[in-house]
Amino acid sequence: MSYFESIRSTFEKQGLRIKSYSARLGNSEAEIDRLFLMAKAMGADSIVARVPGQLTSMVAAAAEKHRMIVGIQFSDVNEVQRQLAISRYFRIDPDIGDLTKAKIDSLQFVKANYMSMCAIDLKDAVLGGPSVPFGEGAAQMREVLQFLKEKQVPFTAYVDCDYPGTGRSVEEVEKCVSYARGIIRHE
Fold first, then answer.
1. Which long-range contacts (CB under 8 A, 24 or more apart) does 14-18 make?
2. CA–CA gap between residue 132 and residue 136 (Å, rounded)
3. How far, in Å, CA of 52 to CA of 49, rounded?
4. Can you spell out the DSSP letters for 116-172?
């Protein structure tokens, strides 16, 4: 674990803290347990991952053992609701762009589920279509952020700009962050 502790140290020297570790789960109890140990060594409070149905029980046991939140990323709303009921450490980490791509009303989803969320991924998309620059799609980002601000939720919003941009990746992320901050600060 010293390798992961050195990552934590490198970030901390820059005044940064690793809040969550986004990982692909292994298929065995040992691999899943190791992910939790790696996340802890880096100082993370949670793990974010897609949790396939067949691994739900193993991930729940590891979350209980390590007393660590698992933010479940998902594409099947019914499956994630079933998973939430399995562990007190399970939360959801919805991507409002992915919800929009799946023709799910992101604002209504967030309103109905914000108490079960540990984070939110901000992405804009065309209804049933591709990702687009922030503010050009149907993900209702403005309304979602205003709602979360009103509710004073204690979780993090992550920027996910996977659309084909016009600039370098850093520039595109900066544009997205600026867009989201503008909503939060002025509304």
1. 17/43, 18/42, 18/43, 18/44
2. 6
3. 9
4. GBSEEEE-EE-TTS-EESTTSSSS-HHHHHHHHHHHT--SEEEE---S--SS-HHHH
Tokens of 111: 């309103």
For the record, the structure tokens of 24 come out as: 């692909």
For the chain, which domains are there? Answer: 1-92 (3.20.20.150), 94-187 (no CATH)
Question: Partners of 71 in the beta sheet?
Answer: 48, 91
Q: What is the pLDDT of residues 23-63, one digit of tens each?
A: 899 999 999 999 999 999 999 999 999 999 999 999 999 99
Please report which helix (H) or strand (E) contains residue 24, including its range.
none
Judged against a pLDDT cut of 80, whether residue 187 lies above it is answered with no
CA distance 184 to 180: 6
Q: What angle do CA 13, 14, 18 make, to 5 degrees?
A: 90
Q: State the CB neighbour count (10 A cutoff) for residue 110.
A: 22
Please state, as a whole number, how many other Cβ atoms lie within 10 Å of the Cβ of residue 59.
Answer: 25
pLDDT tens-digit map of 144-155: 999 999 999 988
Estimate to the nearest angstrom the gap between the alpha carbon of 131 and the chain centroid: 17
Identity of residue 117: M
